[in-house]
Write a structure and sequence with these properties.
There is one protein chain. By secondary structure, the chain is mainly α. It has one domain. Helix content is about 75%, strand content about 5%. It contains two helices and two strands, in the order αββα. A two-stranded antiparallel sheet has the order 1-2. Helix 1 runs antiparallel to helix 2. The longest helix is centred in the first third of the chain and has 101 residues.
Length: about 170
């Protein structure tokens, strides 16, 4: 082998060694960069998971708060419903008692009769016996008295129902 051939062989060997060295360094660098990239992706994934956990926790907390509000409102409305049912029952019981008293003549409905001759039925001083002040009164027929009681009973029931509706709307609006 000639010295030129030796020199060329040596140059090729060096070139081959450099190529292998560069290739190996390239592979190591690529591996290190891949590892860093994988670590960054894992960190981002962990960060996103923490954010999702926080959002989910907040959503659960808000849902629980809304459910607590709804349950409190339902309890309040149930209490109001019981109260209005009691009021309606009491009013019906009072009306039934009054109808019974009218039917048995224990109580009579009467109206004031205007006395145009005297001009005024109210005396200057009130008497201790009652609130009629000695005014003239006419008793109503029992059938008419029953009709009046029925009308006032319907009115009382309507007012109680109206109050229940108003209380319900106030509770809902709050």
């Amino acid at each position: 082998m000639t010295p030129v051939q030796k020199l060329i062989g040596l140059g090729l060997a060096i070139l081959l060694a450099l190529a292998i060295g560069f290739g190996g360094a390239w592979q190591v660098q690529d591996w290190r960069m891949g590892k860093k990239m994988a670590e960054r992706i894992a960190e981002q994934g962990a960060h996103h998971q923490k954010e999702l956990d926080a959002i989910t926790g907040e959503a659960w907390r808000q849902q629980a708060a809304e459910q607590d509000k709804r349950l409190a409102l339902e309890r309040q409305l149930a209490g109001q419903d019981q109260q209005h049912s009691r009021e309606l029952s009491d009013a019906q019981r009072n009306q039934a008692r009054l109808r019974d008293q009218l039917a048995t003549a224990d109580v009579r409905l009467s109206v004031l009769i205007e006395d145009s001759a005297s001009g005024c039925n109210v005396p200057a001083t009130s008497g201790a016996a009652g609130v009629v002040h000695a005014a003239r009164r006419a008793q109503l027929d029992p059938a008419h008295a029953q009709r009046i009681i029925r009308i006032t009973d319907d009115g009382d029931q309507g007012l109680i129902a109206l109050q229940a509706c108003q209380a319900y709307m106030r509770a809902i609006v709050r």
